[in-house]
């Protein structure tokens, strides 16, 4: 049952959100809001009677960053404080680069409904060794078409990291790993797929890695 639980979590990470019908610019009653053309952080904040800074921080962003049409935002439910931390601040130590050396990102993270991508894809360069980006526990090892062999690590504060496109896996489920520990070897013709989640909410891996690169 435990293995099935983590597999279902993994499926939740990778399944793409379906394209929904055209949204009305009216605020949704749920805790999410779909961005429409002309929206701004401050305009949306006024609709929901919250601080623009709180709204941006809840979504791991700042008010200086652009919004994208049809982007899905989480809306404060009244319990969040103005000083709410961004997801990146949940990480107590700097994350390490998951490869031996820095490689170019060929597919970036995207929350756009028409082109969602919940992680980042590195080019298959000179790096072959895949390393743990943060200390944690190996909670799932498996194979899936499109991602080949993959590993899910569980970290503090409900954070998970996923490493896909591995040819060989060199850890086992239940194993505790430290940052930079060897996880496996990349496939010969694919670059690393790397994803970071807080529970089922995907985070931008490039932002997570910024402090550690």
TrEMBL record:
Per the UniProt record, the source organism is Leptospira bourretii
Concerning SUPFAM superfamilies, the annotation shows: Duplicated hybrid motif, LysM domain
The alphabetical list of record keywords is: Signal
Gene3D superfamilies listed in its UniProt record: Glucose Permease (Domain IIA) (2.70.70.10), LysM domain (3.10.350.10)
* Statement: the UniProt record of this protein carries the keyword Calcium: no
Q: Fetch the NCBIfam families from UniProt.
A: LIC_10271_M23
Coiled coil where?
none
Q: Name one GO molecular function term.
A: metalloendopeptidase activity
Which InterPro entries does the record associate with it?
A: Cell_wall_metabolism_enzyme, Dup_hybrid_motif, LysM, LysM_dom_sf, M23ase_b-sheet_dom
The LysM domain covers 31-75
- Entry protein name: LysM peptidoglycan-binding domain-containing protein
